[in-house]
Amino acid sequence: MSDIPEFPDHFNMADYFVFSNIEAGRGDKVAIIYEDQRITYREVADNVTRVARALIDDGLLPEQRVLVAMQDRPEFVYAWFGALKAGGVATQINPALPAADFEYYLNYVKPQFAFVDEASLPEFEKALANTRHCGRGKFMDNVIVAGRERLAEPRMVQADNDFATPAKVYEPDSHQSFNHWIKLPVEKDAQPWPTTKDDPAVWLFTSGTTGHSKGAVHCHFHFPYNTEVYAKRFIGMREDDITISGPRLFFGYATGTNVMFPFAVGATTVLFKEHPTPERLFELIAKHKCTVLTNVPTLINKMLAADVKPDLSTLRFMWSAGEALPADLHKRWDEAYGVPIIDGIGSAESFHIYISNRPGDVRPGSLGKLVPGYTARLTDDDGQTVAQGDVGTLWVGGDSAALYYHASYAKSKEHLRGGWIVSGDKFRQDADGYWYYEGRGDDLIKSGGIYVSPLEVENCLMQHPAVKECCVIGKKDEAGLEKPFAIVVRARSVSERPDTPEDTLAKELIEFCKQKLVRYKAPHGIAFSNKTLPRNDRDKIDRKALRKEYAG
Q: What is the dihedral of CA 216, 220, 225, 231, to 10 degrees?
């Protein structure tokens, strides 16, 4: 394709998204609206530069990882782009994770620096205390916290580890305040590492498609590529847009639509750190006259159910992605508000959306058409192309495809094949070129836009003394949205309280999971079986039979 965007060899995506606005004369334009602040592009660029210089001065090495676990606030933007400008690799995770998940990411990413919200510190500190001390333990020493004006000075302690060399390790309250840290004196000659377009820049984490999330490794030009072909050309993002998002910034979908896409055209984004309730979104959309809303079907359903009559007259369209949008939900939204829903599908492996509806061309029930700049095909189980209209496994290719999954060779071979992404998603394409999602070829559940591993939920439930065995499947709720649903066989001993009413025990088990997992992974419903769960000829629980019995 002749109009595929090209990027120079010497390239840094922070320059593309942030500093290009200064060169274009938009330094005084508002880039971010946050609480009572209206932050200009020049202020964003200055703070990104401060972060980059502070990282380099504190010892960030080229291509080393920087972990960002922050709420939707300006510091997220400064830290994320600052890491990229400095030549590091940015990784972003949910700031509301429990300690066990923080521990997994710390051991997996092994970051030199971590940017964390004050609200995340209690769970993050538990993870730090249990994380293996590696060498000098650099990621133990460099925790920068947003939300506090000043923290205690770092303290030096002797590491208790197997290494002969003494090391600095984490000790409570030895973190630095973000605002204080970026104002510390830095070396005047601290210069960003000269990156190229093919250098690693970002790890985008999968939504648990391989059990634990894996980092899909992307180059500096991958995100600008998708921005050019999708956000600018296909969707038509404009400089006068004001964007806002329900999904949080740690989710690559929202990082794109609510930071990168508006920054790429010099538009304005509205950020807020609170949980995205319908009422809060309605309030901010009206107050700031937002034109583009990023959403997921679960939140769309909540907005329709809210006891509020909002003014959405300034919205020109709303994105929906992350999970399948039921046709009935789409219809109810159209009837209630008339704001066009731009439904599409993307992935961490592609950075963002590659099949999408577009303004002026929306076909409810479909995911729209293939974005120019991407190629796609559907195959059967033998790898052969299926006939028009038949369901097959989607292969998608394009110049934003991830290189590999970090530390996951087998999964890289399975899902990332020489520029092709093989996701396991099942699709069909009609004669007019519109694509329709038909589900997944595995047992994963997509809830609230994020994949949930049934095994993870089952392992949690099995820790409860009242559970003898269990199976977790996906089941659609009253709005047609898929949610985790558990089938449980109760333990029979007196100590497991066999006389407890089922509805009481179901609530207890759901709350038990919410305490140990991220809340969206907890079952939304539980059914109790009085017999042993069915098994196949390999003595594995027959999920297909249970889906047929309980999910229809």
A: 80
Residue 79 CA to residue 76 CA, distance in Å, equals: 5
Query: 56-75 pLDDT, tens per residue?
Result: 999 999 999 999 999 999 99
Taking only the tens place, the pLDDT of each residue in 404-461 is 999 999 999 999 999 999 988 889 999 999 999 987 777 778 888 777 878 789 889 9
Q: How many CB atoms lie within 10 A of CB 84?
A: 29
Residue 258 is given by DSSP the state: I
State the DSSP string of 42-111: HHHHHHHHHHHHHHHHTTPPTT-EEEEE--SSHHHHHHHHHHHHTT-EEEE--TT--HHHHHHHHHHH--
User: 31-56 burial string, b = 16+ CB within 10 Å, else e?
Assistant: bbbbeeeebbbebbbebbbbbbbbbb
Helical spans, DSSP H, in 347-438: 409-415
- Tell me the CA distances in angstroms from 541 to 455, 483, 537, 538, one per residue in order: 12, 20, 10, 9
What pLDDT was estimated at residue 50? 94
Domains of the chain: 13-197 (3.40.50.980), 215-440 (3.40.50.12780), 453-551 (3.30.300.30)
**Chain centre distance of CA 373:** 23
Of 484, 450, 421, 37, nearest to 250 by C-alpha is: 450
Report the distance separating Cα 5 and Cα 7, nearest Å: 7
- Characterize 290-325 residue by residue with b for buried, 16 or more Cβ atoms within 10 angstroms of its Cβ, and e for exposed: bbbbbbbbbbbbbbeeeeeebebeebebbbbbbbbb
Does residue 139 have a pLDDT over 60? no
H/E run at residue 348:
none
Percent share of the chain, pLDDT over 70:
90
CB proximity list for 482: less than 8 A, separation 6 or greater: 323, 324, 445, 446, 447, 474, 475, 476
Q: How confident is the model at residue 493 (pLDDT cuts 50, 70, 90)?
A: low
**Contact between 322 and 247 (Cβ < 8 Å):** yes
**pTM of the full structure:** 0.85
Is pLDDT above 70 for 515?
Answer: yes
CA distance 93 to 42: 27
Between these two residues, 88 and 129, which has the higher pLDDT value? Answer: 88
